[in-house]
Amino acid sequence: MCLGVPMKIIRKDGNEIVAEVDGVQKEASVMLLGEDVAVGDYVIIHAGFAISKLDEQYAEETLSLMREVFSDEDMA
Predict the structure, then answer these.
(1) What distance in Å separates the CA atoms of residue 32 and residue 48, rounded to the nearest whole number?
(2) Which of 9, 29, 36, 43 is most buried, judging by how many CB atoms fall within 10 Å of its CB?
(3) Taking a C-beta distance cutoff of 8 angstroms, is the pair 19, 8 a contact?
């Protein structure tokens, strides 16, 4: 199973970005996105590529649900 994670862009240089979620930073490419992305935007990162741009509210809701699921697994 593959999992794409919503992350916030904190740096951008051409097609290369650094995105962050919960203190974890990842480098990725935005070359697969046909739309412009900027620092502060949320994107889904998978296998080193940003594969879609997300609205901030949707990204935060998704992250909240992911945190809940993963914290429940730690309790099992």
Answers:
(1) 11
(2) 43
(3) yes
15's CB contacts (< 8 A; 6+ apart) are 29, 30, 31
Q: What is the 3-state secondary structure (H, E, C) of 38-68?
A: CCCCEEEEECCEEEEEECHHHHHHHHHHHHH
pTM for this model (two decimals): 0.84
**Dist CA 67 CA 32 (whole Å):** 27
Instruction: Specify the DSSP class assigned to residue 76.
Output: -
Domain covering 5-75 in this structure, CATH number: 2.30.30.140
Q: Where are the domains of the chain?
A: 5-75
> Can you read off the two tokens belonging to residue 16?
């290369």
